[in-house]
From TrEMBL:
Residues 1-45 form the MATH domain. Belongs to the Tdpoz family. SMART domains: BTB. This is Speckle-type POZ protein-like isoform X2. PANTHER family: SPECKLE-TYPE POZ PROTEIN (PTHR24413). It comes from the Eukaryota. The lineage of its organism: Eukaryota, Metazoa, Chordata, Craniata, Vertebrata. GO terms for biological process: protein catabolic process.
Length: 276
């Protein structure tokens, strides 16, 4: 039997000729097809690099899969308030939303709507500790995974992300705050990181404080190793002085990290004990 058809083999699927040979013809010893009960098949197969259709023209890359519009579609669903089933009143401003989307994205919202809480019964949630603009940006992230205005409100958005357990948004805020650390804001940023368990941001802030301290001790003010924004001693800033009063443990952590970085690997040398 001979075939000129091209076939694309897919793993897990077989292919062949249903009427390749009759069983009685195969088992007839007179035909000599099963010597010693062994069937020998001779196949000649040609493998092509591109798949071909019957006409012989290649059809590789002829199908163009549309880009995923899930984020855009969900964003439009929220912006247009279609089929919403709950409302948030944020300092007097109303935002409509979908409980199923919120529950899928945030474990806090999931618990709020899953249990017999007041918000679940009335489909109305009052929020007084988040600015409307910050809440709107957070909701945009919930629906689209994007926060285009994050850099303008990273500190407040970090607090909101922490409150509603939006871990990816929280880390995005940490990253934005890390890239904008200065002598003037590092103490306030350290306090913010500590309040909201932003461990990566906290580590970066402490490292920034320590690097500034080392540079100041070395007097590296030649323009190459010293940034003009670091000219002011961190300890003279209002943020640092406030942190001493409100979060003294952070001061201790910063100096502990500085001491660990400057001490030799094997610790501070001890005096040799006198031998009797």
């Amino acid at each position: 039997m001979e075939s000129q058809r091209a076939y694309r083999f897919v793993q897990g699927k077989d292919w062949g000729f249903k009427k390749f040979i009759r069983r009685d013809f195969l088992l007839d010893e007179a035909n000599g097809l099963l010597p010693d009960d062994k069937l020998t098949l001779f196949c000649e197969v040609s493998v092509v690099q591109d798949s071909v259709n019957i006409s012989g023209h290649t059809n590789t890359n002829t199908l163009k899969v549309p880009e995923c519009r899930l984020a855009e579609d969900l964003g439009n669903l929220w912006e247009n308030t279609r089929f919403t089933d709950c409302s948030f009143f944020v300092r007097g401003q109303e935002f409509k939303a979908h409980k199923s989307v919120l529950a899928a994205r945030s474990p806090v919202f999931n618990a709020m709507f899953e249990h017999e809480m007041e918000e679940s019964k009335k489909n109305r949630v009052e929020i007084n500790d988040v600015d409307p603009e910050v809440f709107k940006e957070m909701m945009r992230f919930v629906y689209t995974g994007k926060a285009p205005n994050l850099d303008k409100m990273a500190d407040n958005l970090l607090a909101a992300a922490d409150k509603y357990a939006l871990e990816r948004l929280k880390v995005m805020c940490e990253e934005a705050l890390c890239s904008n650390l200065t002598v003037e804001n590092v103490a306030d940023t350290l306090v913010l990181a500590d309040l909201h368990s932003a461990e990566q941001l906290k580590a970066q802030a402490i490292d920034f404080i320590n690097r500034c301290s080392v540079l100041r001790q070395l007097g590296c003010k030649d323009g190459k190793n010293w940034n003009s924004n670091q000219a002011t001693d961190i300890m003279e800033t209002a943020g640092w002085k406030s942190m001493i009063q409100s979060h003294p443990h952070l001061v201790a952590e910063a100096f502990r990290a500085l001491a660990s970085a400057q001490c030799p690997q094997f610790g501070i040398p001890r005096k040799r004990l006198k031998q009797s």
